[in-house]
Specification:
single chain, eight-stranded antiparallel β-sheet, 5 helices, globular, binds flavin mononucleotide
């Protein structure tokens, strides 16, 4: 992987996150878990380049988001659609998603976090702030939170942007 300036990122974020989806991995050497996300944002706050991600309390990944500061977003080609589907439908509480899909994880000891080895690019991030999404408009509440399984929003600073080295 090649390290790049995140400001050189020039992809369509609506397509990359909303349509193609990413695999979020939360956790560190003490334990980690990954799940698919297609709600999220890239942006700037407090003069830092950040990602915003939204994780429901029911996700196993939520436990790691609360315990650890390391978060990565791995973006994979759509030839891995099935694998992204599995990461987004089964829980790490019950199965080993890496074993099940054949995807691999790479550990970065300096960062103390994991990302998907097969990704085209990855944002390695550290959690800055989080808040539960409460007091939402009634129509949104009824549509998305009938069962009270609320999202927690995490703002995470992008520490490194790595892109696949096409020569590898
Ligand atoms: C395309 C797609 C996008 C998803 N986006 C999100 C998301 O942004 N936030 C979220 O909490 N769950 C999202 N999910 C659901 C989780 O990925 C799913 O519940 C997963 O199985 C949770 O795994 P875990 O229990 O191992 O954490 C998405 C699922 C799919 C298939």
């Amino acid at each position: 992987m090649l390290r790049k300036d995140v400001k050189s990122f020039d992809k369509n974020v609506f397509d990359e996150i909303g349509n193609k989806a990413a695999i979020l991995i939360s956790g560190d050497k003490n334990g980690f878990n990954g799940m698919t996300i297609s709600w999220g944002a890239l942006g700037v706050i407090w003069n830092k380049n950040v990602v915003f991600v939204f994780v429901r309390h029911s996700r196993y990944t939520y436990d790691f988001m609360e315990k650890s500061d390391s978060v990565t977003l791995s973006f994979l080609d759509d030839k891995y659609k099935k694998e992204k589907g599995l990461f987004g439908s089964l829980s790490g509480r019950n199965i080993d998603k890496f074993k099940e899909t054949g995807l691999h994880h790479t550990y970065d000891p300096d960062f103390d976090g994991y990302y998907i080895t097969e990704c085209d690019y990855v944002f390695k991030c550290k959690k800055l702030y989080s808040v539960d999404l409460n007091d939402l408009p009634k129509d949104i509440n009824e549509k998305f939170y009938k069962d009270n399984d609320i999202h927690r929003m995490y703002i995470c600073e992008i520490k490194q942007y790595l892109v696949k080295n096409l020569d590898d």
